[in-house]
Amino acid sequence: MWNGKSVAAHAIWVDDADMDILAKRGVGLSHNPESNMKLASGTAPVLKWLTHGIHAGIGTDGAASNNDLDMFEAMRVTAFLHKLANMDPRAMPASMALDLATRGGADVLGMSQKIGSLEVGKQADVITVTMDGARQTPVYDPVAQLVYVNRGDDVRNTIVAGKVLMRNRHVTTLRRADVLRDARAMAERVRSAVK
């Protein structure tokens, strides 16, 4: 039985009764729009989830159904998909997509007291992104710029719990060559297993 510490992914074909149960049980939902689009699974009714009081966040699913795992792309696709699905350019504004990717994700995980926003007493998880490239110029609305224009490779610095994990695009905690070597070896194992 769901006890409020559960996270469900996709939830595409839920009806009002299902959403009432999910909200009552405190189940968080992960919206994975790129995976759903790639697999032609359907469009999750995220705006209805929110109306029902369900905690919702944005996810990327896994590499098998979303090759790039880029949260910036997931925010962008979320915003555009729900504008189209609702035939309303005001549906899912950039600020809502950003909120789902940050505060919403923390709510889904039951960790909003510790993470998800920059506040005194919360864990210092921060990224910085470049906003001065040709693609990003001019900047009229920084939030819209983050959601509609920026990409994962625009991240310059990453700090988790106050520890610098990436500085000026250089990962400080892992060796790039080792990670790529291990990923290629794992890919070969996967290829062999599915032959």
Put the structure in a nutshell.
The chain is 39% helix and 14% strand. It has 7 helices and 7 strands; from the N terminus they run E-H-E-H-H-E-H-H-E-H-E-E-E-H. The chain has helices at 16-25, 33-38, 46-51, 71-85, 94-108, 142-148, 176-193; strands spanning 7-9, 28-31, 56-58, 126-129, 155-160, 163-167, 170-171.
The total of helices stands at: 7
Q: In total, how many beta strands?
A: 7
CATH architect. name of the largest domain: Alpha-Beta Barrel
For the record, the count of structural domains works out to: 2
Radius of gyration: 18 Å
Cα(first) to Cα(last) distance is 38 Å
CATH topology of the largest domain: TIM Barrel
Class by alpha and beta content = alpha/beta
Q: What overall form do the CA principal axes indicate?
A: globular
What's the arrangement of secondary structure elements?
Layout: E1 7-9, H1 16-25, E2 28-31, H2 33-38, H3 46-51, E3 56-58, H4 71-85, H5 94-108, E4 126-129, H6 142-148, E5 155-160, E6 163-167, E7 170-171, H7 176-193
Parallel strand pairs: 1-2, 2-3
Antiparallel strand pairs: 4-5, 5-6, 6-7
Helix pairs in contact: 4-5, 5-6
